[in-house]
Amino acid sequence: MRFFKETLFAGIAAVVVANPAYAQDASGSSDSRAVTVQPYIEVSQILSAELTPGDEVVTFTQIAAGVDLNARGRNSGASVSVRYERNIGYGDAVDTDTVSGIARGYLALVPQTLNLEAGALASRTRVDGGGAVSPNPLVSADATSQTYALYAGPTLTTRVGAVDLTANARVGYNRFEVDDAVLDTAGNPVDVFDDSVSYSGQVRAGTRPGEVLPVGLAVTAGGYQEDISNLDQRVRDVYVRGDIIIPVTPSLALTGGVGYEDVEVSSRDALRDAAGDPVVGNDGRLVTDSASPRLVAFDVDGLLWDVGVMWRPSSRTSLAASVGERYDSTTYYGTFTYVPSERSSLGISVYDNVSGFGGALNNSLASLSSDFTAARNPVTGDFGGLVSGSDGGGGLVGSLGSVRSAAFRGRGISANYQHQIGRLTAAFGAGYDRRTFIAAAGTALEAADGLTDESYYLTGALSREVGRSGSLQTNAYINWFQAGGADGDLTAFGASAAYNRSITTKLSARAALAVDYFDSDFSAEDFATATALLGLRYNF
Description:
Order of helices and strands: HEEEEEEEEEEEEEEEEHEEEEEEEEEE
Distance between the termini: 53 Å
Shape: globular
Helix content: under 10%
Oligomer: single chain
Number of helices: 2
Structural class: mainly beta
């Protein structure tokens, strides 16, 4: 039973992380000390040709600066990929400024005991009819949007006698910016998410199997709240639960838990005009009536439970899966990671939670590894959400999916895989996200109550060294979004390829080509565009 005792508590952490409502990040410290910092500047010329429905050709001069960082220390670790880009258009082309990037790291304030963790995200997408996908934004700059997210908080891991004690707290902020109102198929504005602040915390005490009792026992209490600016919505979830871990074999255990939860979603109504119609602002969002009473949209107060299995045959493979009841209905969640070597990793996550758009984004960001590689589009510079973690855990911030302002119950699955063979590196991500919206009767969001938006996404990147001074990179993506009700669908897919060749140790030249296609029920026409790039990059 020795191996089981040594690895069981790591498995318990996997069970907890599998459910975002109880999520905590357990970034450990590393004995290795390595820092890789690569700042750079780029100057490129871009030509973009519209293939359909028209034949317009536009050109840009692109000036960009960025930095890629990966640091692993004894008591800290971080990965950062951030880029500022200025596209200067000629003729009818529109000038744009964009910041894109992702960061995730931790700092041990007290080694092996108290960590401070943080993460940030800036991403550019296209949005139509309440759905966000990630095609080349140069296809139609007037439909692009910007998403920002960040979070920070401490995590405590210690031992008091035979009791393992963990605790964490997290505060996050999220914002979605779009220049013009988003319209549905009938031409009516969609109330898209604006911004939110989220708070979460958890305390857990547990004993390991075989130390105090033949089974492991744990008690967990925590809470989550998200305050959404649209109609002053509030999502609140507090819970307490007890868990038992029953060893079956040295690598297999059965799990069970039971507890109490109190979940409530509420909001205010929109400001009304003289005719009683909701007032819509210039950005297409509903204007909140701050004098309106708070109306409850969802209220669950009672028992929660789940049973599951935990399998950890080696330090390279871990599975945790559970089924039970939460939110007054059946729930499923779990994780699977497989890291056979430093060159290969696979991570799969099944989730189920109630939150707003911002809370879902924060959960995805917090689940990332602090040691990752972000694959960027060689033409636009966007990373498109493909982020591969070296430990197989939390490796993809994929399709943003629906950007409606209403709170929702989000269920889905995400997977990421990376592999390196000699000079070839491959990374793939895929996922499905289903959001069923929750809105109070009698409010301007009432029509969204019960609607379900679905998103599917698949993205991949391949890179290979060519000779001593060249490299080849290819990217591809497919996004499909289906809006609830009769609002319609949108599909985006594309591919790109780039060749880079070193001129000196710091200066390199690059050439890239991208093809993007966008088909939306929310637009009268489909769009297909081919984009070419020639440029220089200087690495400091």
